[in-house]
Amino acid sequence: MKAKAAELRGKSAQELRDELLALRREQFNLRMQRGVNPDAVRNAQITTVRRNIARVKTVMNENRAQETGDAKVEK
Q1: pLDDT digits (tens, 9 = 90+) for 45-57
Q2: How far, in Å, CA of 56 to CA of 34, rounded?
Q3: CATH number for domain 5-67, candidates 1.10.150, 3.40.50, 3.30.1360, 1.10.287
Q4: CA–CA distance from 13 to each of 5, 20, 42, 44, 53 (Å)?
Q5: Between helices 43-68 and 13-36, what is the axis angle to 10°?
Q6: Torsion angle in degrees (nearest 10) through CA of 63, 66, 71, 75
Q7: pLDDT tens for residues 12-34?
Q8: What is the structure's pLDDT at 75?
Q9: pTM
């Protein structure tokens, strides 16, 4: 399942941490499955999980920046 950034922005910090933990567990399980039987896991599944982790972390960093009042400098 692809997580949308707009859906993630509506979640609380605790929900985002829970989502990140679940995605990391899924990533670990896929890596273990790939080690046992490489044909059982599609690379697209691993890529999707990695990108979802990146989305969650991006939203968490955006929320943290808003709380502290920091703004990234545009180059």
Answers
A1: 999 999 999 999 9
A2: 24
A3: 1.10.287
A4: 14, 11, 31, 28, 14
A5: 160
A6: 40
A7: 999 999 999 999 999 999 999 99
A8: 37
A9: 0.81
Q: Would you list the domain boundaries of the chain?
A: 5-67
Per DSSP, the three-state class of 58 is helix
DSSP string over 4-55:
PHHHHHTS-HHHHHHHHHHHHHHHHHHHHHHHH-GGGS-HHHHHHHHHHHHH
Residue that is written with structure tokens 């808003």 in the block: 66
Would you say residue 73 has pLDDT above 50?
Answer: no
